[in-house]
Specification:
Blueprint: H1 12-23, H2 45-52, E1 96-97, H3 128-135, E2 141-145, H4 152-160, E3 164-170, H5 173-183, E4 190-194, H6 200-209, E5 225-231, H7 236-240, H8 267-273, H9 276-285, H10 292-302, H11 308-318, H12 331-341, H13 344-358, E6 359-369, H14 372-387, E7 406-408, H15 418-423, E8 431-437
Parallel strand pairs: 2-3, 2-5, 3-4, 5-6
Antiparallel strand pairs: 1-4, 6-8, 7-8
This protein binds S-adenosylmethionine.
């Protein structure tokens, strides 16, 4: 059912597509052949950032936002999204950004955490055309952008998909402020929420129960969304913010928390308290760092660590010059520490099954990952969903009784084109995977 006040169902073309969808094999993937993984081309956010230099400042995504389609904020009768004081993420309803309240325009506010609201957001959305195409014909309803960031993907989706409204989530209130400014032209098609996607199921249930975002008034609490998008990792603005400690390129206290309103451990605590073994494991797994043990040993010997520069110099000194790869040797260590500080892999492991459960029939989940640890989680969660956990030998009919309600939209992962990487080097490590719910939780009629 289309929720009251939300855009109506798209045309019959979409319905035909959905009928076709039901006829396809739930376990099959039909849009693209398996792509060979190129692990050597994978680069961390930070090294891509370094490669980009200032280039992204010149790349605008204006053509995909509401204003580019001939609307101004007032013409679109936008309700300005204003950030109330952010509550704890557990109390998600208190952290809602109500769309019905008027407040000062974000541009009139002072800089937050090194980010100036009036500045055009510097984050260039990755694989944005592919993302929009994947959501173009999903059923009318709510799309959850679980990593709304500066709202680049959300703006493109809202502009291209009139049947969709967006519930945008981010754990970083500074990112939400940028999203609010960027998406204000879309009025009440957007609700922004300060929350972690690790709480996705309860965040959606609470938002719907609170009646914010015009959720359907009937139907299951689960299977209510038309799409879920995850664009993982950190944004360019987070990396570039000089005081946040995400990058070896800025001298700053070792912080790296995406949500500074929470009392969680920052990078300084993590680096000064973890055992040498733990550090080495993170660097090896998340940072894929060949010299993980050596770096961990140097850190433990040099404690206490306080600044990004200290960490960067320690890493540099731990890796023989001849063994240094392209980019700064600290980039992968910074990535590994950031992942540990923000529990990124745990968040993702919990969020993926929750996202798949939330999808209504024909709804799609799209994930863009930027390093192999993330991508492995996505690949295995999607494979499990698309096979229903079937244990039967490949190529033979299923006799184990597994039932799948999802299908992969293509095999393997889509990668950005060479042209996109040239425009936006941060995209170089991106891997996009997508899955669709083909059968409703109530079973076929
Ligand atoms: C790559 S950026 C997204 C950029 C966005 N797609 C755009 O076009 O502007 C990733 C965002 O996800 C947020 N994030 C990361 N982990 C999160 C989590 N567990 N829950 C909610 N937000 C998260 C970060 O704060 C960051 O703003």
């Amino acid at each position: 059912m289309v929720p009251r006040g939300w855009p109506q169902r798209a045309n019959g073309c979409e319905l035909n597509d959905r009928a076709g969808t039901r006829a396809r094999r739930a376990r099959g993937a039909d849009e693209a052949p398996e792509e060979k993984r190129d692990s050597t081309s994978e680069r961390s956010d930070d090294s891509a950032q370094e490669a980009r230099g200032t280039a992204n400042a010149t790349h605008s995504t204006d053509s995909t936002d509401g204003k580019a389609h001939g609307r101004t904020a007032s013409q679109a009768s936008a309700r300005i999204l204003r950030s109330p004081p952010t509550g704890s993420v557990e109390d998600s309803s208190s952290a809602l950004f109500p769309t019905g309240r008027q407040g000062p325009t974000p541009q009139s506010t002072t800089p937050i955490g090194g980010l100036r609201m009036s500045r055009a957001p510097g984050h260039v959305p990755v694989l944005v055309e592919e993302v929009v195409a994947l959501f173009a014909r999903v059923p009318a309803g709510v799309l959850v952008d679980a990593t709304v960031g500066a709202g680049g993907h959300a703006a493109a989706i809202l502009a291209a998909c009139p049947q969709l409204a967006v519930l945008g989530i981010d754990r970083d209130p500074e990112a939400l402020a940028l999203a609010a400014a960027r998406l204000e032209g879309f009025g009440d098609r957007v609700v922004l929420l300060h929350a972690r996607f690790g709480d996705l199921g309860s965040v959606v249930a609470d938002a719907r129960a609170a009646g914010r975002g015009r959720w359907p008034t009937t139907g299951e609490v689960s299977t209510v969304v038309s799409g879920v998008l995850f664009d993982l990792g950190v944004s360019s603005m987070q990396l570039e913010a000089p005081d946040r400690g995400f990058s070896y390129r800025h001298e700053a206290p070792l912080d790296m928390r995406m949500d500074r309103t929470r009392a969680g451990r920052d990078a300084m605590a993590v680096l000064n308290e973890a055992s040498e073994g733990e550090l080495a494991r993170w660097f090896a797994a998340s940072g894929e760092q060949r010299f993980a043990r050596r770096i961990a040993r140097s850190i433990v010997a040099a404690r206490p660590l306080v600044t990004t520069t200290q960490l960067a110099e320690l890493v540099e000194g731990s890796i023989p010059a001849a063994q240094r790869r392209r980019g700064h040797p600290a980039s992968r260590v910074f990535q590994a520490v950031r992942i540990a500080v923000n529990d990124e892999l745990e968040e993702l492991s919990g969020a993926l099954p929750a996202a798949l459960d939330l999808l209504g029939e024909g709804g799609r989940c799209v994930v863009i990952a930027y390093h192999s640890g993330e991508d492995r989680l996505v690949k295995s969660a999607f494979a499990l969903a698309a096979t229903g956990g079937c244990q039967c030998p490949p190529g033979l009919p299923c006799v184990c009784g597994a039932r799948s309600v999802h299908r992969l939209l293509f095999r393997g992962a889509k990668k950005p084109s060479a042209a996109e990487i040239a425009r936006n080097p941060r995209a170089s490590s991106a891997r996009l995977r997508a899955i669709e719910r083909v059968v409703s939780s109530r079973g076929p009629d």
